[in-house]
Amino acid sequence: MATLNQKELLGLLLRAIDASGWKTIILSESKPFRFRVFQNDEKGFTICVYIWNCTHGGGKARAKDEYRVQLTGVVPNITIGELTLLLGWHEGYGVFVAFDINKHVGQVSQSPSIQVKESSLSDAHQHAFAIYLRHNGEIAVVFRPEFFVDYALNAPSLHMTGQIEEELTLLNTLDTLTDDKISTVSDTERRSIISKISRKYRAQDFRRRILGAYGHRCAMCTSN
To answer: How far apart are CA 129 and CA 207, in angstroms?
Structure first.
């Protein structure tokens, strides 16, 4: 499977922000990448991104269904006043895997890496989002590029552990998630997050189905 170099990862992030419906100004083209993200004339906010490829690696010694993000070249740290994200990118499934930056600040070792199961990568590829509980209790969030900014804005809440794990796993079923199920979420903030992501998924899924039905051509004039 192909992996992306630094320039390609930067381009990937720019396309993801655009697919999320936001505009961006690049503040730093070296890792960690930094962007000013905004809509219309709003002031916007700054995102600091640590990102590596998500690969299998490890040869036969690693479980067949276990993938990893190896933190090399730069040590993750939180930048005050900015949204700081710790991401992996799997080129084959076309999804980001996000980890809780608070659990990996200053993480250094001979070969630091963070693991995720392939099933979560596959689920996010098919259903837009997947929530994966790691062995250490950390919640990993896997998502398609068009949900990049939605994830960034809600990262702290999405990585919270404990009693909210069951509620967050509703994001694993966006294709069948109903408003009635969303209404059972006890916390107002989490209910709002899940509801917004669900509405966006429905809108984009509807658009894909309509375009597919008409062969990605205008139903009136048959143009692309």
So the answer is: 18
- Say how far apart CA 208 and CA 219 lie, in whole Å: 14
Q: Which amino acid does the sequence have at 73?
A: G
The Cα–Cα gap between 22 and 37 comes to 7
Q: According to the model, what pLDDT value does residue 165 have? A: 60
Number of Cβ within 10 Å of residue 205's Cβ equals 14
- CA-based angle 100:13:169, to the nearest 5? 40
Name the nearest CA neighbour of 194 among 129, 98, 126.
129
Cβ proximity of 93 and 124 under 8 Å:
yes
Number of C-beta neighbours around residue 16 at 10 A = 24
Torsion of CA 81, 86, 91, 94, to 10 degrees: -70
Reported as a single tens digit per residue, the pLDDT across 21-80 is: 999 999 999 999 999 999 987 789 999 999 999 998 766 667 888 999 999 888 899 988
Using the 8-state DSSP alphabet, how is residue 215 labeled?
T
For the chain, where are the alpha helices, taking DSSP H only? 6-19, 118-127, 148-158, 165-168, 179-182, 188-213
Q: What average pLDDT does the segment 127-150 reach?
A: 90
Angle (CA) 128-129-135 rounded to 5° is 150
What are the extents of the domains in the chain? Answer: 6-161
Are 16 and 146 in contact by the 8 Å Cβ rule? The answer is yes
| Token pair 């640590």 in the structure block, residue | 50
CA torsion 115-120-124-126 (nearest 10°) is 140
